[in-house]
Amino acid sequence: MSTVILRHAPQAFPTLSVTPLNPTFAALVENVDLAREQSEHTIDLIRNALVQHKLLVFRRQRITPSQQRDFAARFGPLHIHPLLNHDADLKEIIVLNYDRSRPPEKDEWHTDVTFIETPPLGSILYGAVIPETGGDTLFADLAAAYAALSEPVRSLLDGLRATHDFRKSFRASTYYGEDNVKWDNARKNNPPVSHPVVRTHPESGIKSLFVNEGFTTAIEGLNADESQALLEFLIRHQAKPQFVYRHRWQAGDVLFWDNRATQHMVVADYWPQHRRMHRATVLGDRPV
Ligand SMILES: [Fe+2]
Q1: Nearest residue to 28 via CA among 248, 269, 223
Q2: Domain of 225?
Q3: 112, 141, 253, 258: which one is catalytic?
Q4: Does residue 195 carry a catalytic annotation?
Q5: Active site residue 112
Q6: Is there a catalytic annotation at residue 110?
Q7: Selection from 285, 234, 280 nearest residue 257 by Cα
Q8: Residue 279 a catalytic site member
Q9: What is the domain-level CATH number for residue 123?
């Protein structure tokens, strides 16, 4: 695989090394310490690499929640999740912490927070505690999945919209039932929204599928059978192995993915081992 070295004057700018990890997307980014304040130039390089590669992997990082928040905020305003646990002092940092006493919940393919009008442009996930085995995260390239469809199917999808509803993933289950007021407020503040089935990336201009198993409930304007059949087809299609990169975590990894062109899921196979992740979520614009 080729390595793209972006060289700049050594005093003014660090050297950022970007190495593709998979045929269509995902790249390893080296020579940057995310705990430090980054120059505007480095932020631009990372933003461009994110658009080009859709998933950036930074290894051997050591960042506090506030450092993670500060880094994420360089890319846009941050989303505060209505339901997931957050850091005690920083609402912008979601803490996903599972161990013997709290088994991981069943996961499914999703793109983060598509249940709002302006879903996130990206998420930044830090691996604080990583199990010896298991707990990998799968990512799928939804631009490659769209491009692999036949022209007649792409034409059909181009004109369609779909409904996204946070209740599909965050059910009023036994777990949330213990905290029903919070769940009920989240439901009231997040009514179902409509997004195009195919979105055009605001920076690259490349089209991607934009439905997901986690939050998409229906394709609008179709009858129920048609909607269900088409959604099931798309969900199965976009999870095919040729579109998927599987990340095996090491403690200190930071992953930054583009929610406008990918979906992901964690493999919940590591219980009763401990896994703790910190996530910052950068808001994006209205999909078109
Ligand atoms: Fe997620």
Answers
A1: 248
A2: 76-283
A3: 112
A4: no
A5: yes
A6: yes
A7: 280
A8: yes
A9: 3.60.130.10
Q: Which residues, by Cβ under 5 Å, contact ligand 1, an ion?
A: 112
Measured in angstroms, how far is the CA atom of residue 213 from the centroid of ligand 1?
A: 12
Which pTM was predicted? Answer: 0.94
Measured between alpha carbons, how far is 7 from 15 in angstroms, rounded to an integer?
5
**Does the residue 46 lie in any domain?**
no
Q: What's the average model confidence in pLDDT over 32-52?
A: 97
Query: Which phi and psi angles does 164 have, rounded to 5°?
Result: -120, 135
Position 108 pLDDT exceeds 60:
yes
In a domain, 259, yes or no: yes
Q: Which residue has the tokens 């700049």?
A: 8
Count the domains in the chain.
1
Confirm whether 194 is domain-assigned. Answer: yes
17 domain-assigned: no
Of the residues 79, 260, 264, 278, only one is catalytic, namely 264
Alpha carbon 105 to chain centroid, angstroms: 17
Dist. CA 182 → ligand 1 center (Å): 20
CA of 7 to the centre of ligand 1 (A): 33
pLDDT category at 1 given cuts 50, 70, 90 is very low
